[in-house]
Design a protein that fits this description.
There is one protein chain. With 237 residues, this protein is α+β, with helices and mostly antiparallel strands. It has 3 domains: 75 residues; 77 residues, Serine Threonine Protein Phosphatase 5, Tetratricopeptide repeat (Alpha Horseshoe), CATH 1.25.40; 61 residues, Tetratricopeptide repeat domain (Serine Threonine Protein Phosphatase 5, Tetratricopeptide repeat, Alpha Horseshoe). 54% of the residues lie in helices and 17% in strands. The protein is built from 10 helices and 5 strands, in the order E-E-E-E-H-E-H-H-H-H-H-H-H-H-H. Helix 2 runs antiparallel to helix 3 and helix 7 runs antiparallel to helix 8.
């Protein structure tokens, strides 16, 4: 019976070069975890290019292992899955920093996620929202424009991304851009009443009540018990 190996990952940022040519890069190191025989302690050994442990072990607490390393079950056959876990961790960290208005740290985490998966939707969305929040409007717009070029974005389950873009843009009074994003969401799913309602709100705030009423009517056609849409439409007179 083959012994199961426990493998973990740690991502580290290193600096290469000197002066004006210096740059930072992210490296990923994989370790094999072993028991030390002492309560609460584990020993990590770095894996070489042949996935064999080498060098002296590093002993640490299980708590530190849980906090600083990512578990990689079935490492040899599932390295891609391990990377996906790491991407999700960076995205969650970025979203947590965003909620605390720690914008610099949020952008850093979203960038780490995007360095591993350049088409990750939530990472792009989080980065764009954070850049807007800290006042970097032009850079945020570039992020949103890039999103529009990601082919997988146009799958049905991703309609919420354009809808959320629209909401963020409308909050910042970028109504033309918000309407464009709602229109993309509707192109993906023309049966979603909530998106038509949001589109109606954007047109109303742009001063186009006729257009607003048209899309509110459409929302109610799709969902007759949509109370917010009915009340909003009634307020238009």
């Amino acid at each position: 019976m083959t012994e199961t190996r426990r493998i973990v990952l740690k991502q580290e940022t290193i600096r290469l070069g000197f002066g004006a040519t210096a740059r930072t890069t992210v490296i990923e190191n994989y370790y094999q975890v072993g028991e030390t025989g002492e309560g609460g302690q584990v020993a990590l050994r770095l894996l070489d290019i042949n996935d064999e442990p080498f060098g002296p072990p590093e002993v640490m607490s299980r708590e530190r292992l849980e906090q600083e390393y990512i578990a990689c079950p079935d490492y040899l056959s599932r390295q891609k899955n391990c990377q996906e876990v790491l991407v999700e961790k960076h995205v969650r960290n970025g979203e947590a920093h965003y909620e605390k208005r720690e914008f610099h740290s949020a952008v850093s985490e979203f960038n780490k996620a995007l360095s591993l998966n350049g088409d990750h939707l939530r990472a792009h969305l989080g980065k764009g929202k954070t850049l807007f929040a800290r006042g970097d409007r032009e850079e945020a717009q570039r992020v949103f424009e890039h999103l529009g070029r990601i082919e997988t974005l146009y799958e049905r389950e991703n309609k919420h991304v354009f809808n959320e873009f629209g909401i963020e843009l409308r909050k910042r009074k970028l109504l033309k851009e918000a309407i464009a994003n709602y229109a993309k969401a509707i192109a993906i799913d023309p049966e979603d009443a909530v998106i038509f309602y949001n589109l109606g709100r954007a047109y109303y705030e742009q001063g186009e009540q006729g257009q607003a009423a048209q899309y509110l009517h459409r929302a109610l056609t799709l969902q007759p018990d949509f109370r917010e849409a009915r009340e909003f439409l009634a307020s238009l007179g």
